[in-house]
Write a structure and sequence with these properties.
single chain, 334 residues, Fic-like fold, Arc Repressor Mutant, subunit A, elongated
Amino acid sequence: MTYQPPCTITPVIERLLGQICEFVGRHSLPIAEEQNLKLRRINRIRTIQGSLAIEGNTLSEDQITAILAGKPVVAPLREIQEVKNAIEVYDRLEQWNPYKEEDLLAAHEIMMQGLIDYPGRYRGGGVGIMGRNEIIHVAPPASRVNILMRDLFNWLERSEHHPLVASSIFHYEFEFIHPFADGNGRMGRLWQSLILTGWNSIFAITPVESMVHAHQQAYYEAIGQSTKMGDSAAFVAFMLETILAVLEQTETDQVTDQVSDQVIRLLNSMDTGFMSVSEMMGELSLVHRPTFSKNYLHPALESGLLEMKYPDNPRHPGQSYRLTPKGRNIKALL
């Protein structure tokens, strides 16, 4: 019989899927190459730190940044090796094919090089998944791993589920099988990110792993609940909630990086109607008009966050300003 991982597509999953697709649709415009490279670097560091932290690695984002730059870091040698391995794997993210089992094995070999005896090979003994204080899942016997992984990859390649759902199901089933002696958590999260990046490049700059780390206990509970129910729906819903949350957080971070503190203050002080300069300065408790114009008003106008009531006559005696749709959207994110 053809293998079909059990997953009930619940109303919660359908709602979250719609929200994520709508978000991605709104943010699918290309960004400048320089900004794209900066975002990839920042979020890759967050991704590596989050994924390894779940496995007990204590290195901070600053330490990982230093390792990435080739600088010395005082830390346990194993943890430094984990970071170096993860950096190499994520640097090759676009080279891996998510539908090829041999690529998974190759990625695991790099991820666990110098950390276990046989990286890049499936386990030869029994393993379990630890929650906070107890074993929450005993994996299938080693003798079943090869056929289970073959079936899982065959299913992934022919699955008609949306990639958001299919990647989450794969992630759960991967953790259920627990095919390696070590490194299963970081590999499951990596492979879901790889599947998602193949669907939409926005996930190349979206640190899903960092949000999973922030909700680590809920992550394990979702795995345990799905295992108990014999259905991955609970885990799929958790991952979709996490993906939506990290997309929204990443958008907020990008906005605040691009908008000055003064402009943020101005946006937060405004309502939906037109306001004169005097009214805006009053809301901000400012009295020096040239400073207000230079640091607040002009940057907001140049960024398309405010619009004039009389755009054809900037010096109109009744001139006033209001938030543009872009300005309202950014204010809602702040």
